[in-house]
Design brief:
Blueprint: H1 8-11, H2 37-47, H3 62-90, H4 101-131, H5 149-176, H6 180-203, H7 219-227, E1 249-251, E2 260-267, E3 278-283, E4 289-292, E5 294-299, E6 302-309, H8 311-314, E7 318-325, H9 334-339, E8 341-350
Antiparallel strand pairs: 1-2, 2-6, 3-4, 3-7, 5-6, 7-8
Helix pairs in contact: 2-4, 3-4, 3-5, 3-7, 5-6, 5-7
Length: 351
């Protein structure tokens, strides 16, 4: 299995080069998604910690079940991703060789801990589903649009930003569903993911912390983001995750730290563009920003369009989640944007 080219809609503004996509397998390391007792002991040793051993709550809401399904779906993807990155470095594949053996050893030590920690996150979510008599989420086949260590770290940083925003949404949904007992565990995972993100950013010569309040997200955006890395038809029970699927959105060139127009393409099979569409941005914990969308061309279902990226007026640093919406709002939060989303998410990373 190699890191592969696909899912450009998820990457949006990252502008990675890539080769031809090759399908991966559903096999994950260390017996996942259901390791034996001895395999779990090894994972916990590598993770420098254990699964929570307190009793699970006696009941859970439907909102809570959906949270756990999405979290398991995402964590299995991350396990596959970091396992493959470690394999590529260990085997010294092109693009993954280090000139300094000390740098190589440092990277592998950190990545092996991250892999094991993500394995525990996946196990915890699926174990909770089993406890509540719900089918656990099974791994898919995946493709990854990176070709070397640097692009792999950039992508890891991007999807970790999405995870950090999505887990905010998960905590709120747990609370709204009266599943407060599960919120503390998710808060602990947010801290872990934040530590990982700080390292990814330092490796890119960025300051460790991007924003005072990290960009929020919605479970539906995360579902579409992870789904774009899966081989169609390879996910055994993805249909059990009751979240929306949007049309694809690809940002053609990454905007910089300035106000400028961006060009993007998206699928519009029902010609919604003929009735008016907008580009809506979610950044930090601020109200979503809506900009008019100008269609440049159309070929079949594919539309090429432009919209303003209003960096200067809103300090659009860190992660910005872009989506093509069928309404110009106003929107109160990310969850409201989802209700009107035609295509997305497009992920823009500045700073």
């Amino acid at each position: 299995m190699k890191f592969l080219a696909s899912a450009m809609a998820l990457l949006g503004a990252l502008s990675l080069t890539s080769g031809a996509p090759i399908n991966t397998t559903n096999e994950l390391p260390n017996g996942l998604p259901f390791p034996s007792a001895s395999e779990l002991a090894v994972i916990e040793q590598n993770a420098h910690g254990t699964l929570p051993n307190g009793p699970p709550p006696p009941v859970i809401s439907n909102k809570g079940i959906n949270n756990l399904r999405l979290i398991a779906f995402n964590e299995l993807f991350e396990v596959a991703y970091f396992n493959e990155l470690i394999t590529n470095i260990t085997e010294g594949k092109d693009g993954y060789r280090f000139t300094d053996s000390g740098d190589r050893d440092d990277a592998l030590r950190s990545l092996k801990a991250i892999l094991a920690q993500e394995e525990l996150h996946a196990i915890s979510a699926n174990d909770a589903l089993v406890h509540f008599h719900v089918h656990p989420i099974q791994p898919c086949e995946y493709t990854f649009p990176v070709q070397d260590f640097d692009s792999a770290i950039r992508l890891a940083s991007t999807f970790t930003d999405v995870v950090l925003g999505t887990l905010q949404d998960a905590i709120e949904r747990f609370v709204l569903g009266h599943d407060a007992d599960l919120a503390r565990e998710i808060a602990a995972v947010i801290g872990n993911e934040g530590e990982q993100q700080g390292w990814f950013r330092v490796l890119q010569a960025k300051i460790p912390s991007a924003l005072p309040f990290l960009t929020t997200a919605d479970l539906n955006y995360a579902f579409n983001a992870v789904k774009s890395f899966t081989v169609p038809g390879s996910c055994p029970n993805i249909e059990e995750i009751p979240l929306r699927t949007f049309e694809s959105l690809e940002i053609l060139e990454a905007p910089g730290a300035k106000t400028e127009n961006i060009t993007f393409t998206f699928n519009d099979p029902e010609d919604q563009a003929g009735h008016g569409l907008w580009m809506t941005y979610i950044n930090q914990l601020n109200l979503p920003i809506v900009e008019p969308l100008k269609v440049i061309s159309r070929e079949g279902d594919s539309v090429t369009a432009q919209a303003l990226f209003p960096y200067d007026d809103h300090e659009l640093n860190g992660l910005t989640i872009a989506s093509v919406t069928t309404s110009d709002g106003p929107f109160s939060d990310a969850n409201e944007v989802v209700k009107w989303t035609l295509a997305g998410p497009g992920l823009i990373s500045v700073n």
